[in-house]
Amino acid sequence: MANAVEEVKQMPSSDEIYRERWYSTLAQIAIPFFLAALGTITAGLMLGNVQDWVVYRDLNELYVLVAVLCGLKGNLDMCVASRISTHANLGHLTKRGSIVKIFVGNMALVQVQAIVCAFFLSTLTVVVNSLVKQELMFNNFPILAAAALVTSSSSCLVLDSIVMVIILFSQRYRFNPDYMATPVVASIGDVVTISLLSFTAALIYDLSNSYPWISPCLLAGYVLVLLPIWLLVVMRNVYVRQILMASWIPVIGALCISQIAGFVLSSSVDDFRGFAVFSPIINGLGGNLVSVQASNMASILYQRSSLGVLPIDTRILEWPHKVYFRGTVYSRISRILIAISVAANVGLVFLADYLYVSKIAVRWTFVVAFVVTSLLQLLVLLWLAHALVHLLWRRHIDPDTAAIPYLTAVGDALGTGLLAVMFHLLRRTGNDYMGKHLPWIRINVDRMLDKL
After folding, report:
1. 11-15 contacts: CB < 8 A, separation 24 or more?
2. How do residues 83-121 score in pLDDT, each as one tens digit?
3. CA 415: distance to chain centroid?
4. CA–CA separation, 249 vs 160, rounded Å?
5. CB 103, CB 80: distance < 8 Å
6. Looking at beta carbons, which pairs linking 121-128 to residues 24 or more positions away fall under 8 Å?
7. In the list 187, 299, 300, 399, which could disulfide-bond 389, CB 3.0-4.6 Å?
8. Is 239:102 a contact under the CB 8 Å cutoff?
9. 53, 445 in Cβ contact below 8 A?
10. Of all helices (H) and strands (E), which one includes residue 360?
11. Cβ atoms of residues 116 and 177 within 8 Å
12. Phi-psi sector, 358: left (phi>0), alpha (psi -120 to 50), beta
């Protein structure tokens, strides 16, 4: 015990950790965040378009899969970003051999998780939908599962490569990878996931009418061929071998929470035309910002203490005002994230509105309501992140692996639920959002498939 106390006392202080000026930190967070926000808007516009596709009208379960697969992408890829950022901050990415092993190991780990979780999510979605409608709905299971497997595996492959490039770039030019990698890959991931799922599901759905064996073959290829290969790579990699077993509980638990967001989305998207556009924005921004803070907390804890021992100036449960403004070593980042959230949401509402209906017609009541809703979501997530990261650390659980899945899942469920409440309140007060307008940027996949 004495050795542990002595070890904690020798850890660096907050002044030693944050040697950079506040405006330098702001620039490192804000620039990639606003670039990533464009990806979030694109994801919203994409979802606003695909809701009118034939495959979405015939397979309503796709709305649930959109939410949970975006959550899965956030869980897996942001955990990879957080883990590799911690490796970078601890100096593990200085040798080419270590870089290759860390990258390949994390890539294989994410592929194993993506394949297993996509199959699990497809099954869970169909089961829950059958229970809700009180009839068996398994006819579309092969199409849903095949589309989910292709989407999750392919998107993780692309996004993990981007993560590694961003982190190596950050390390080369002495930026903090915790601030850059997480928001960029999260928002790009929403676009990639929604696009891949929509086009893949539409293509498989169209081809299955003539070639019904396509979906079962894709399922067999991923589960019986690719999964054992990736699993073998993970078991032979020293960097991720132990993470494999420890990561399942938070990932699966988070995906079950994300089901709430999926069913809220599927029940609200037909009632509120703009809901599909603004849902990825509120969830993407909230998840991005809290993931930055969680990744930052984990890196600081690894620098100040050892796993299982809290620094002497840190508590698991802290007063909210200390978490948000002043009183903890992480408060400065919280203040910056709150400021970014307010400014970003104002701009993104107007930009999304213009891109969706070709003019700025959104009312000020909607803008204020959306900003307040997003801010409330972020405040809850920041406080929860502080408590969860330190609780996991105290119980010898790596927060890089376990914290972000829960935070992003709660963020999706909380954001979608609060957004649904906001839309209902605005409708009751006569301030409904553009319910009769259709998007001026339209992608007609049904016509493209007919030409093929």
Report:
1. 11/303, 11/304, 11/305, 11/311, 12/303, 12/304, 14/329
2. 888 888 778 888 888 889 999 999 999 999 999 989 988
3. 12
4. 21
5. no
6. 121/65, 121/68, 121/69, 121/72, 121/148, 121/255, 122/65, 122/148, 122/149, 124/255, 124/256, 124/259, 125/61, 125/64, 125/65, 125/68, 125/259, 125/262, 126/61, 128/64, 128/259, 128/263
7. 399
8. yes
9. yes
10. none
11. no
12. left
Q: Which residue has the tokens 């409330």?
A: 376
Question: Residue 183's pLDDT band (boundaries 50, 70, 90)?
Answer: low
Type of residue at 240: V
The residue type found at 301 is: L
- The structure's pTM equals 0.71
Q: What are the start-end ranges of the H helices in 51-176?
A: 54-58, 61-89, 96-133, 141-172
What one-character DSSP code corresponds to residue 363? -
Residue given tokens 């077993």 in the structure block = 245
Provide the residue type at 248 as one letter: W
Q: Does the structure show a pLDDT above 80 at 442?
A: no
Annotate 338-366 with b (16+ C-beta within 10 A) or e (fewer). bebbeebbeebbeebbebbbeeeebeeeb
